[in-house]
Amino acid sequence: MNDRGLELVRSAMAGSRDSYGLLVMDFTGFVYTMALRFTGDHHMAEDLCQDIFLKGWMKIGDLKDPGAFPGWIATLARRACLTALEKRRRRMELHEGEADLENLNPSFPESFDPARRILEEAMMRLTLQERELLTMCYFEEMDSVEAGEIAGLPPGTVRVYLHRARKKLHDILKGRENELLG
Amino acid sequence: MNSWGSDRLEGRIDALLRLSVEKGSEPSDIIVKLPPERPAFPWARIASVIAAAVLLGFFAVQLIQGYELPVTSFSLSSLFCGISPGEALSAAAIAVGVIGSVTAFIPDWNETLRRML
């Protein structure tokens, strides 16, 4: 985190709502993307964003090290997403019996540009763990150690999963270079 | 994170992944609303729970004093003898209600309670 970010976290920890609001603006992109890649549902991701930042606001006083804020918010986001997925899974099991839970139709916002939409569609063809790790490892230069701590995996395993995920993503998007580069 | 390839597609995927988690990558219509103030340590809540408990206790004592009770034996057997199933059920319901109300005031348990309901 840069100095401005650290200062905002310190101020938010001391109770400044305005500072936390600025942090929310800085991190909504990550939290929304994380929620979207977990759920594949734009509206659910939107609601999760609200819940995660609200929870963060209630708990930011417990944060010990301001520099740990990105990892902390990523952890909050991950937990909230997993809980939401579990709730959806249970709801669908109740209502649809043997529904195919892995092949839900993803919904993305209208405002995504074509390249982003293609990327997100390709991401949805990876496993949940691969999507999660790819998202975290591009956030705030997070390394495999930190991502592993959040995901509960050893750093070596994170690196293997990441390598596999990138290769799969590359294979999925092969042939769509022009659309992505255009 | 190091770039994971030199060809154009890999570079573009790398750039898109990076852009997708940066500030402003969310749809523009997403607005996170925060409550006006973050409650400090929930002293006010704890105080209100205690006040409510004291008030309820006071009314309960008033109610009990209204009955003409015989000399009370404090042994365990006398406590439970003469309790009808309906009374036991009511007592259990009240206990669950009180525990539930207290739980609702503890922020960390809110989520669990909400999930249970």
Kindly state the mean pLDDT of chain A as a whole number?
88
Number of helices, where a helix is a run of at least 4 consecutive DSSP H or I residues of chain B: 5
Assign the structural class of chain A, choosing from mainly alpha, mainly beta, alpha/beta, alpha+beta, or little secondary structure: mainly alpha
Largest interface: A-B, 47 and 34 residues
Distance between the termini of chain B: 43 Å
Shape of chain B: elongated
Q: What share of residues are in beta strands of chain A? A: under 5%
Unreliable residue stretches of chain A:
none
| Helix-strand pattern of chain A | HHHHHHHHH
Helix content of chain A: over 70%
Largest sheet of chain B: none
Total count of strands of chain A: 0
Question: How many strand elements of chain B?
Answer: 0
Structural class by SSE content of chain B: mainly alpha
| N→C terminal distance of chain A | 32 Å
Radius of gyration of chain A: 17 Å
Largest sheet features of chain A: none
Amount of beta strand of chain B:
under 5%
Helix content of chain B: 55-70%
Radius of gyration of chain B: 29 Å
